[in-house]
Amino acid sequence: MADPTRIWTAALIVIGDEILSGRTQDRNIAQVATWLGVQGIRLREVRVVADDEAAIVEAVNILRARNDYLFTTGGIGPTHDDITVDAIAKALGVGVEVHEGARALLTDYYATRGGLTDARLRMARVPAGADLIENRMSGAPGIRHGNIFIMAGVPSITAGMLDSLTGTLEGGLPLLSETIGCWVGESEIADLLASMERSHEGCQIGSYPFFREGRTGANFVIRATDPVVLNACTADLTAALERGGWAVTAGGI
Amino acid sequence: MADPTRIWTAALIVIGDEILSGRTQDRNIAQVATWLGVQGIRLREVRVVADDEAAIVEAVNILRARNDYLFTTGGIGPTHDDITVDAIAKALGVGVEVHEGARALLTDYYATRGGLTDARLRMARVPAGADLIENRMSGAPGIRHGNIFIMAGVPSITAGMLDSLTGTLEGGLPLLSETIGCWVGESEIADLLASMERSHEGCQIGSYPFFREGRTGANFVIRATDPVVLNACTADLTAALERGGWAVTAGGI
User: Fold this and answer.
1) Any CB–CB contact under 8 A between B192 and chain A?
2) Does residue B139 surpass a pLDDT of 90?
3) B111, B140, B165 - which closes a domain
4) Which residues of A touch B180 (CB under 8 A)?
5) Complex ipTM, two decimals?
6) Domain identity same for B160 and B191
7) What is the gyration radius of the CA atoms in chain A, in angstroms?
């Protein structure tokens, strides 16, 4: 059984000028975060960096040292702006080599697609000593080197790589959550939320306001690793809100 | 006229457990990035951090020092998990004070909404010496302190705050871009892209593959500050792709 006091953490580096220019709406942060939660690993921090070697090296070396796992997305394709493998190898102080397993995968994948050109062979390059992460969507695999997981930028490909990693990483107790919603301004129940969190050790309560159809509401997310604690806090907060005259929607609004 | 050699940069800190848990899909990165681009300011790096004072302080102090501007989103509401103002004040080494202009705004806003309670007054607290950023959507203003811009987490409110800042920040020449798309595997034209970028000084070419309906395609984004350079590179790349037998869709696929 997992040690309930051990919290496993991960960081994510999203690599790509297209995110920083606003051209592309990132979808990997939410997808990696959600997947990690199920594995019992908490996403502690994310950085979005440009296709720039120095920026990648800095982020990799800080984040891999202070988290159990480091994930990256983006920059592992065949074109000139795909520099992730070289930058991570530099950060690790290792060379770059063609992974023979990756070469075999790509040879097979491109056998009916025009053959393995030099550009395509770039996608078999890994930091020396790395293993592969299965790509269930297309040809080029992801890469694992120690506690670093190097994945694609295209969200559907990243999803397949995460799927192939499911259940393979050591984690702790998953952080469970319940959501309830009210048509209430959060400023009206700020004190209630703070006292409810204080009186339920092991729970965190997040308050997320929204504005819809000219009305003010908020969803409250209660998080805990212990389901008994989680349910007690959720029930107590629900009862307190209802005593205050606010109708509570289980699951959030 | 703006100095064409001066590049203005910004960083963004997205503050919030809800992003790191995967519960909420961030939309502020793309919106801030796009807005900055129009102001002639480049978003150079983004960090997503938890509702955690130490994490916010670390990010603020590193990023404000090495960028012209620092933006933050999230954590400026009235509840216990809204700690952005206190954390930024700590990073700056200044106290927290109630801004009298913000108090007046909130008094007015809540006059017909139950009055200015202690919880609501929390939203008038600023790092000492700060100015306000107009909130065109709801009551609580954003905050400016030197080169730091503290904004809401709710994207529609952030949008209003950005709107009120439009044209007020010094920037350089906007980075212009053109997008063209092809139904081509990017590995087939990787060498062409690299040589095209090399032969057009001042241009960057990004390659963004996608998979739709079982087919492989890619969009190519050409970026430059000089419209003449941009148009020449776009035209040359389009002509080269068409010579290779690929139909090019202007504006991207």
Assistant:
1) no
2) no
3) B165
4) none
5) 0.94
6) no
7) 22
